Amino acid sequence: MTDFSNISAIVTDISGTTSSIEFIDEVLFPYAQNHLISFVKHNPSHPSVQECLLQVAQEVQVDVNNHDVLLHHIQQCLELNVKSKPLKVLQSLVLQNGYLEDHFQSHIYKDAHQQLHHWQQQDLQLFSYSSASVNGQKWFFKYSQEGDLQHLFSGHFDTRIGQKQESAAYANIIQILGKPAEHILFLSDLRQELDAARQAGLQTCQVIREASQPLTSPHPCVRNFNGIKLG
To answer: Per-residue pLDDT tens for 161-173?
Structure first.
């Protein structure tokens, strides 16, 4: 059991922390990759799709109505795993459609669900911080295998606030929450993110779920959320 005191808000990572990396890598990413082009073709009048196509057209400097070229470029970006704002928005739309069509439900560790519920009942403010878009995070928690968990969260942060391995992102979160940095606990499976959060003054905890990995870290570390005790 790892003790933390004077915590009034918790910011949690998603992949590898509240949800399995395998679900993200083996379900969500392939689904988005496999359905994105078809989704764009069948939804050309969707306002967000139109905006994304306009941004892609500006990137490759072609007419926005030249859908063949735009779709070819998007397909290449998917194959090369290129990170771009319009691509992330399109992927989010595809996953949203997948949730609505009940093609999958997001995986949440039971201990994460139980403790998040417990902490919310204790009047702690809960936030998620992920490279996925804010809307994507909302859908992720709304359509989970543990039911609709969206009500547990006071808000969500994505990389518009800053990159997760840069301390400036956590400084921005501190400013938005309006709380002393030492009253905010950040949970993640990645040391680099925790290093950045600690540099900004947050309390940190590394969640090391893989049993083959030793519980050794410069940060307090636990196997799951049940190992976190808030004093």
So the answer is: 999 999 999 999 9
